[in-house]
Each structure stands twice: as C-alpha cells, then as structure tokens.
Write a structure and sequence with these properties.
This protein is an alpha/beta fold. The chain has two domains: about 325 residues, Up-down Bundle (ABC transporter transmembrane region fold); about 170 residues, P-loop containing nucleotide triphosphate hydrolases (Rossmann fold), CATH 3.40.50.300. The chain is built from 22 helices and ten strands. It has a six-stranded mixed beta sheet, sandwiched between helices. Helix 7 packs antiparallel against helix 12, helix 8 runs antiparallel to helix 11 and helix 17 packs across helix 19. About 35% of the residues are buried.
Length: about 575
C-alpha cells in the first residue's frame, strides 16, 4: 500500500523541506488541538467540587481564545504548504508526460490511443496529486495524531479504559486491508474503461460528418451508450467498495463509544475516574473518530494513487525506438542527401515497404518521387525524418549517417508538409508562425503569395486573425494545404519535403506555386512526392517507386523516352486532365 510513496520518493526528496515543515506544523496543530478537551474536563471538575472562581474562569476563556488563534494560524501554514506541494507534483508530472509525448515516435502512438493518453493525463494525475496532498494528511492523522490521542487518553486518564475502547482497532486493520486490495484492482479497471470511452468520443467528434453522411447517428449513439454503461458499471464496482468504508468505520467507532461510555461510567461509580475525566475521555474518543476514518481514507487514496501512478509510469518508462547518439556529429548545412541500399519494414510486418533504395541529391537540387498509392513514398520521408528505427542500409546527410546526427538538428533543417495537414485551433497567423515564431505580417504575406493564398485571405472575415476551428474545419482542403505550405515556406528550410501537398489545388494554382518555389529555393534542396506528375516535371531527378523499389529514374525527358510507367501515367493525365494513380 505504501509503495506509492516509495515510487514518488524522487519528488519528496526534492521538496523534503516543504513536506517536513508541513508535517511538523500538522503535528503541532494536532497537539494544540488536544489541550482544549483537557481544559474542559478540568473546568467540569472545578464546577463539580465548587472550586471554580471568576478569575480562574477568565483565565480559562482567554486560554481558549489564544489556542484557537494559534491553532488556526498553524493549520493555515500546514494546509497551504502541503496541498500546494501536491499541485506542484501534478504540474511536474503533467510536464513530464507532455515532454515524453513530444519525444515519442509513431510506434508509441499506434500502441496507445489518444483517449487513453488523455485519461492518464487528467484523471490519473488527479489521483496522484491527491496522494501527495490528502494522502500525506491522512497518513499523519491515522498514525501520529491517533497515537497522540491514545497517549493522552492512556497517560492522563486511564490505560484500562483506553485499551478497552480500542479493542475494535485490529478488526478495522484487517477489514481495511481487504477493502484496499479490492479498490486497487477495480479502480485500475475503471480508469482503463474511461480511457476507452475517451477514444470513442474523440472518434465520433472527428468523424461526425461521416456519421451523418451515412445516417449512422443512432448506431453511434447506441455504441456510446453501451460504452458509458460499461464505464458506469466499472465505477459502480469501485463505489460499492468505497461505500463500505464509512459504514464499517461507524460500526467500529460505535463499538468504541459503547465500550468507552459503559466501562467509563463504571470507573466513575467506583471513584477510579472523575466526571471531568470521563467527559475528557469521551471528547478524545470523539476526536479519535477522524483518525480511524483516516485509516480507511488513507488506504482508499493510496490504492487509487498507486494504480494511477502505475499507469503513468507505464507510459513514462516506454523507451523511444529512435534514440540519439551520445556524441552527435556536428554538421553545418545540408550539402547532400544519400540513400544507400535502404530497406525497411514497419514493426510487426513481414514485408519490406522499401527495398534496396539508393539515390543521391545535392544541395540546390529537386527530387521528384512518384509511384502508385502504397509504393513507399511517405515511408521514405519518415525515414529521413528519423521517425522509425530498424533501417537497413545507410541514410546520410552531408556524408554523415543520420543516426550520428542530433534529432533536433535534422528536423531543424527540414520543412515537412505531409499528406494530411494539421491545423491548430488558432488563427491563420498563428498557424503560419508555427514555422517561425517571430515572423512579421510582412513575411507572412510574402509566403502566402508563394503559396498562392493571398486572394483567399482577403475573402476571409478577419484576414490573418480568422480562427480556423478544430483541425482547420472552417477551411477547405485546398486552403489547408496552402496554409501548411506557407508554414513550411516561412521556415526557409535547408530541405523542403512536400508529400503530395498539392493534390487539393487546381492545376493553375499548382503551376503558380511551383513557379514561386523554383524562384525562391534556387540554392536549397527540395523533395516532392506527387500523384499528379505535372508537379515534378521540373525536378532535377525523378524516381519511380513500385512496391518499395525504384523501377525507373531520370529527368522528365529521360523517363518519357523510356516509355515505362511514368510515360503512361503522364500521357493519361495530360489526356484526361485528372489524377490517375494506377
């Protein structure tokens, strides 16, 4: 049960002063809280024996007021210090998770779905934060505070009465341990179900237009209802165990009260105790209720926190399959890109997506990559971006193996426009500035002209400040492509990769963009993958991929003379004026 604290020792070691101060303050506040019952019992005895004077009563009242002020001040200090520490832990864990997500490769995100990651980043972090705050409080109150109360009851009143009243405690320990094990198991299951529900909600929201187009609203609503029922059932299973804590504690506390009152009254009749002692004892017994409840709360909180921490650590301990060299080689700029007999297969697949691919392009040249759908064009770019490991052969930049270069260096050289453009739910200006954070409006308008987007921006209601909506929902496919192009252009990268990034624009727009591209990037390297072959006719080199292999290579004129696949596709596209993918 206490393993969760051991797992968090890295945090407690760093903030040990904060937690030591909070715990000491909590203990002092608890000790001060034990004084008033003793004063009350003393006052009752003074009344019973008719020895209470006005001067003594005044001193007692003043003492009470001072104790209240001191207790309030110290309680504020430990409360603020302890629970602000829990907030800091949540912040740290959230930052670690985010940094981890940003360093992960596609394999990680294929194993863990977005909804599950969101569940771990919200509900599980809250449970861990609760452990570092409320968990520490209940630990101190269920141990040190309880022992302090028992000591006061035993040493200042009667050990016989104290031990008799505490008979239910061992029973409580056994029952609470069983409850805790059940809570851990059921809470883990409930959190996993919540993650699955998140996944389905995200899919439904993203695919809402498809759902409506195929009139699947009722089916999707029914599917969601089944999922929510599953989450409900699993949380009810947690709640059933949770609900047993309080009644169990009340029964045990009731037994303690019964023993305390019955045996205590007997001791008063036998003149072993005074009436004031019995009142004080019962006040202490009442104060003991919270520490006894705290035992149950402690087990509950720690088991939930332990389950959540295991889920978070499972993610954080996942090692990225692509790692950097311990001593990266420093390269000033991209002078050449070489693929030397590169073969690659995605994880858990037997067939190679690339097979013995070899080519070289030099600084300032343009490479066109064409082929049927699934030929391996996007895979080639992913390997250049070092998104996957397990590459056979060599990929070199400036004659240095990419595995010897820093990942940040490689990606800082590259401006990548993928097939599926990602628009952030911000303004057009902010989406373009993602490529260059301090870009001015003048620079933005210049790259929008290169991307042939100026006419569109004039028609939008707020110009550059137009909100694009969730994933760019307010923009057309062609507009999203051109905003993505502008975002890459403003970076002015050493290597620009366009992965079928002109498919949603018309032929005239494509021609204008390519003309601007040639003029702008005369001394920089460009790689263009396209199904519409008109996008690569100007390239210095063109390779044709088929089932991961290069089957044709050369310039546009050379490939036309070969009269192979490239020639056939180009003629068909010119005749029909449409994209033919083969």
């Amino acid at each position: 049960m206490f393993r969760v604290f051991k797992k968090l020792n890295w945090f407690f070691r760093y903030y040990w002063k904060r937690y030591v101060f909070a715990i000491i303050s909590l203990i002092i506040a608890s000790a001060i809280g034990l004084i008033p019952p003793k004063i009350a019992g003393y006052t009752i005895d003074q009344i019973q024996f008719e020895t209470l004077t006005l001067q003594l009563l005044t001193a007692i009242i003043i003492g009470y007021v001072l104790l209240i002020i001191i207790h309030y001040s110290i309680s504020f200090l430990w409360d603020y210090t302890l629970f602000s520490g829990a907030v800091i832990l949540e912040k740290w864990m959230r930052s670690k998770l985010m940094q981890h997500f940003l360093s992960m490769t596609p394999i990680f995100f294929s194993k863990y779905r977005t909804g599950d990651l969101m569940a771990r980043s919200t509900n599980d972090l809250k449970a861990i934060s609760l452990t570092a705050g409320f968990g520490v409080l209940t630990l101190v109150d269920s141990s040190i505070f309880m022992l302090m109360i028992i000591a006061m009851m035993g040493f200042t009143i009667s050990w016989k009465l104290t031990l008799a009243a505490l008979i239910p405690l061992p029973i409580m320990a056994i029952v609470m341990n069983k409850y805790g094990a059940a809570i851990h198991k059921r809470f883990s299951t409930a959190q996993a179900a919540f993650g699955e529900m998140n996944n389905e909600v995200l899919e439904s929201i993203k695919g809402v237009r498809v759902i409506r187009a195929f009139v699947q609203e009722k089916y999707d609503a029914k599917r969601f209802e089944q999922r929510t029922k599953d989450v409900y059932d699993k949380n009810i299973a947690v709640a059933k165990i949770d609900a047993l804590f309080e009644p169990t504690m009340k029964i045990l506390v009731g037994l303690s009260y019964t023993i305390g009152l019955g045996y205590g009254a007997l001791l008063v009749f036998e003149n072993v105790l005074t009436l004031g002692d019995l009142v004080t004892f019962n006040v202490y017994l009442g104060m003991l209720i919270w520490p006894m409840f705290a035992v149950g709360e402690l087990i509950n909180v720690l088991q939930r926190g332990n389950a959540s921490l295991d889920r978070i650590n499972h993610i954080l301990h996942y090692q990225a399959d692509v790692t950097e060299s311990d001593v990266p080689v420093h390269v000033e700029k991209v002078t050449s890109i070489t693929f030397d007999h590169v073969s690659f297969a995605y994880p858990n697949t037997d067939k190679n997506q690339l097979e013995q691919v070899s080519f070289q392009i030099k600084q300032g040249e343009t490479l066109g990559v064409v082929g049927k759908t699934g030929a391996g064009k996007t895979t080639l770019f992913k390997l250049l971006l070092r998104q996957y490991s397990g590459v056979k052969g060599e990929i070199r930049i400036s004659d240095v193996n990419v595995s010897d270069l820093s990942l940040n260096t490689i990606r800082s050289w590259i401006g990548y426009v993928p097939q599926d453009q990602m628009m952030f739910s911000k303004t057009i200006r902010e989406n373009i500035q993602f490529g260059k954070e301090d870009a001015t409006d003048e620079e933005i308008f210049r790259v929008m002209e290169l991307a042939h987007f100026l006419n569109d921006i004039k028609q939008l209601p707020n110009g550059l400040d137009t909100q694009v909506g969730e994933s760019g929902v307010t923009l057309s496919g062609g507009q999203k492509q051109r905003v993505a192009l502008a975002r890459a252009f403003i970076k002015c990268p050493e290597l620009l990769i366009l992965d079928d990034s002109l498919s949603a624009v018309d032929g005239n727009t494509e021609a204008n963009i390519l003309e601007h591209l040639r003029a702008e990037r005369q001394n920089k390297t460009t790689i263009i993958a396209a199904h519409r072959l008109s996008a690569v006719t100007h390239a210095d080199h063109i390779i044709v991929l088929h089932e991961g292999q290069i089957v044709e290579r050369g310039t546009h004129d050379e490939l036309m003379q070969l009269q192979g696949w490239y020639y056939t596709q180009y003629v068909q596209q010119q005749l029909h004026g449409v994209e033919v993918t083969g």
